[in-house]
Amino acid sequence: MRIILCGFGVVGQSFAKLLESRSEDLYARYGLKPRIVGVFDRNGSAIDPSGLDINRLIDVKKKHNSVKKYADTKNSISGIEIINDLEAEVLIETTESNYKDAEPGMTHIISAMKRGMHVISVNKGPLALAFPSLMEIAAYNQVLFRFSGTVGGGTPILDFAKNSLRGERIISFSGILNGTTNYILTNMANGMSFNDALDDAKQKGYVEADESLDLDGLDAAAKLVILANWIMGMKVVMSDIKITGIRKIDSVDIKRAAEKNSAIKLIASCNKELTVAPKEISTVDPLCVSGTLNAISFTSEHSGTQTIIGRGAGGIETASSILRDLIDIRNESTKT
Ligand SMILES: NC(=O)c1ccc[n+]([C@@H]2O[C@H](COP(=O)([O-])OP(=O)(O)OC[C@H]3O[C@@H](n4cnc5c(N)ncnc54)[C@H](OP(=O)(O)O)[C@@H]3O)[C@@H](O)[C@H]2O)c1
Questions:
Q1: Which of 123, 262, 275, 334 has the lowest tally of Cβ within 10 angstroms?
Q2: Any atom of ligand 1 within 6 Å of the Cβ of 14
């Protein structure tokens, strides 16, 4: 299985390392022999139709801050040229999520689908802005589109709702989908001011380069869009979500909630409407998780409410979700 990898940052490199470390096992258990034949970052690219040497690729990236020095040639071809010209079965999109125009991920995904490649995305931007059209483009081009890592990192939230609750009708769901704001609110509940809690989260590397994506609820809203489309069959995009972030929460709000044995959490919910907003929830509610954890409760017609809890991010966790998607694509595409 030949792979083109867009972006070679935390997740891209973790995925490449995971492939390397699991190669024998993947072949023995699934008959899967994945090869990364092309990879690019902001500054250049590396290609080898017979498969790139992953250890060398990681060394080159570390030394030169780009994969472009992998080969001894002066120029490397652009990402979009790779997608349009290189032969591959799967494109994996790991560039930054942005919610203004979703580029460059949107172009990468659409171009690959039009060429007949299956696509795995951990980039939420394209899904948040255009989920329904991307599903149509995938169906029209008869390719598979998977995105397990976009919600919950390595915690299989989408798979749980779609597969483990197969046959059930999910009526509503709500959850904590952004670990960074949960970490900040947890620290505030332990007595820190908003600014100190934010500084602490920044020092630990939890906050996105554009802090607004976390603090103003955009990351949580993007995940809500993905869940609502995939699990509930809605056709919604980011502009359909009512979003309120956590910037206005202060120590008085936190104390008032604690007096009622509750905590303030940034809750994304799909009930009568789609909202992301800070809400008071009881400290004995299974959703009331602390630190960077994510949690989501699905309420279904017959089996009641189930909550799934796990780490919502992390390079290796997210890489493991890409591998899950790759195995799924392999299984699905060999059925036809
Ligand atoms: N990290 C997590 O735990 C996690 C969890 C779930 C989902 N995600 C999503 O996964 C994606 C990747 O996350 P990450 O943590 O790996 O981010 P990252 O470390 O910032 O890596 C992003 C990569 O994309 C490349 N890139 C950005 N703009 C580009 C462009 N215009 N053309 C070509 N390459 C471009 C960057 O190139 P340079 O290396 O040259 O800068 C970098 O290699 C994001 O969309 C994120 O929201 C991340």
A1: 334
A2: no
Centre of ligand 1 to C-alpha 92, Å, is 11
**Cα(94) to centroid(ligand 1), Å:** 5
Separation between Cα atoms, residue 187 and residue 211, nearest integer Å: 17
Report the distance separating Cα 288 and Cα 263, nearest Å: 7
Residue of 41, 93, 108 to mutate, ligand 1, most atoms within 8 A of C-beta: 41
Question: Quick one: tokens of 288?
Answer: 């009331």
pLDDT in tens, 78-103: 999 999 999 999 999 999 999 999 99
Give the ligand 1 atom nearest the CA of 123: 45
pLDDT for residue 313:
83
pLDDT recorded at residue 199: 97
CB environment 283-308: b (16+ within 10 A), e (fewer): eeeebebbebbbbbbbebeeeeebeb
Cβ of 122 closer than 6 Å to ligand 1, yes or no, is yes
